[in-house]
Amino acid sequence: MTLVVHHLSKTFGINLTLDDLSFSVGAGDRVGVVGMNGVGKSTLLNILAGQETQDAGTVALDAGAEMAYLPQATPIFFGRTIDDLILESVGNLRQLEARMGELEREMAGADEDRAAALLEEYALVSTRFQDRGGYDLEYRIDAILAGLGIAHLPRTREVETLSGGEKARVGMATLLLRSPDLLLLDEPTNHLDAGALEWLEGYLAGFGGALLAVSHDRQFLNRVVNRIFEIDEHTRRLKKYEGDYDAYAGAKVTERAKWEEDYERQQEEIKALRLRMRETGRQVAHNRAPKDGDKYIYNFKGGGVQKAISRNVRAAEEQLKRIEADPILKPPRPLRFYPRFDARRLRSDSVITVEHVNKGYDGRVILRDVSFRVASDARIMLVGPNGVGKTTLLRLLLGLDTPDAGSVRVTGSAQLGYLPQEPLLDTGQTILGAYRQVVAGYDEQLIAGLLERGLFRLEDMPKLVGQLSVGQRRKLEIARLMAMQPNALLLDEPTNYVSLDVLEAFEAAVLAFPGPVIVVTHDRWFMQRFGGERWELVDGRLIGEHMGLMVDG
């Protein structure tokens, strides 16, 4: 199986998104696609999957090869059950199985010549059926559902009733069950808990087909991929690197250092050539022919010197022209995120108090008799499998939902800042309009504030939220969060969709935040750095460590 892309380009309006991309991917290649939010990573996968058309170039996949695509946003599964999706995903295997049965029946009554042709087709179909796991299909269904942590869900349950994380894992399961030759995954680790992540990494590491995965998860990239494709933010062209994320990061540091060194060396060369031209120009002036009659001596000595100086000037001019015709471009200053939380002072040691809270949906108990207090310096990591109620608990603390029983009290001086799991912005607003919702000021002041944080450029300001990638919307939500000047943070999967250029700076800002932080996350890199209390939701009850914080569940 080979995917071949030649000179692929894509623009949206006047904005160049992808420029002259060429690459090939074969069986066994596991490629991580990286780059800043908005550079076109998801666009590339959409084009490869046939969901969007390119402006130029070609995409070719071997005849008969099957491709499967998991987009970043979970598809709508209205009215369909888990079983419906499973049956759809294995439909191709069922077709192969049915064809094998037809061939077996035809061979039973065929003459010798016809039987030979039927046997040849049967060999091809049965091999394909075997390679795709057809003979152990029921086992594979059970293994994949168990590996992704959704085996407990009734297969008759409608997918739209599941949590966001459960929907994402059902989508992943049905994709893997198709046993495609090429997997296209856009942020596959979003919404996966630790167990599902570990299982998926093991599965993909042993996957025999080809994989292209857009991901910001550094551990996932280190454990799964063997090549990195980067879409450059300035040129919008593809750069290829061998190895995992650590190898890529090291290569980028070396590459940047060499670029800066080569640029500085060329600038010094240009300065030296111009200085040489000025000095030789002065020598020409000083070596002009004398006005007296003793021109014989000048012609014999000075004339030769004049010619030599002129040759030097011309040589310097020619060398300078060659450099200026194809100069080493100045390394652009990276768009750096400068995070700063200007938190207002809390006037209470106890910020949030929860007493005997119960919450359920459709007869299912989500939270059962949950009680705790959050101190002004709390650092709480809320963990547990997807669907156990972590997001529900955050929404109760924010007052977005009401408990069925019990109470939630937030101190009057608390300004809660919330980063939801999925972007919730109005897609019809401009970036500036969405920012204006949370901070007052003249447009010039608001634009300056956005630019100062380093998340957007001036040319981004007129864009509508609906024109932004999911990652760019995430950056806008981070900018809004900081502008609100919260003194307590509730973060639901804060590293989802955030590109690598922003991720570490945002993590550092959260770690330096002076007020209490409650974070729901499955990002293992972030979890290692965050530290603090670890609270786990188990069967509706909250189980926590006791390090100066009270948890009664």
Outline the structure in words:
By secondary structure, this protein is of the alpha/beta class. It contains 16 helices and 19 strands.
Q: Which structural class do you get from the secondary structure elements? A: alpha/beta
Instruction: Output the radius of gyration.
Output: 31 Å
Outline the low-pLDDT stretches.
546-550
Distance between the termini: 54 Å
β-sheet strand percentage:
15-25%
Mass-distribution shape: flat
- Overall pLDDT confidence: 85
The counted number of beta strands is 19
Proportion in helices: 40-55%
- Strand arrangement, largest sheet? 5-6-7-3-8-9
Main sheet: strands, sense, barrel: 6 strands, mixed
Helix segment tally: 16
Features of this protein?
553 residues, alpha/beta, six-stranded mixed beta sheet, flat
